[in-house]
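Render this sequence as a predicted structure.
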Amino acid sequence: MQDIFLNILRTQAQTVYVISSGNSVSKEAMTVSSVASLSANPPRMLVCINKSAAMHDFLKTTESFCLNLLSKEQEHVADICSNSEKINERFSNDPWLRKEDTPYLENAQSNLFCSLKEIMEDTTHSIFIGEIQDLIHNESLKPLIYQEGKYV
C-alpha cells in the first residue's frame, strides 16, 4: 500500500518551495514538498519536515522562517537544497538576502515570511505552522513545478 500511496503523490503537480531559517550564528535551507495554506485569516501556512533532516531540529530553535516559492529558472536551487551532500553549497550560488535573521532568495517568485506559531509532532515528520508576517511576490516570474519525479 505504501508504494501505491507514494505513486499517487508523485502524480500531483506541486510548486517547489525552499524553506529557509536563521539566527545570528547560523542558517539553514531545504527543499520541501509538503507545503500548504492553512488559513487566510490569519494568513497561515504549514510545512511538513522529516525528523531526520537537519532543518527539523534547527527550525525548532528559531522564531521565524521563509517559504521561498522558486521560479521556473531555479531548478538548480531545488536540487542543491534537496541534496544532503551539498548542504555547504546552499547559500553560495544564488543571491540570498536577510530579513532580520531569516535568509531568503532574492529572485524567487515569492517569499512568504512566517513567524513560527506551532509545531505538531507526528510519526516521521513534524508539522510546522507559520503565520505570514510579510510577503514579496513577483508576478512576472513563473513558478517551478514538479511532477512525476521531474520539473515540468
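Summary. The mean pLDDT is 95. Residues 81 and 90 are 6 Å apart (CA to CA).
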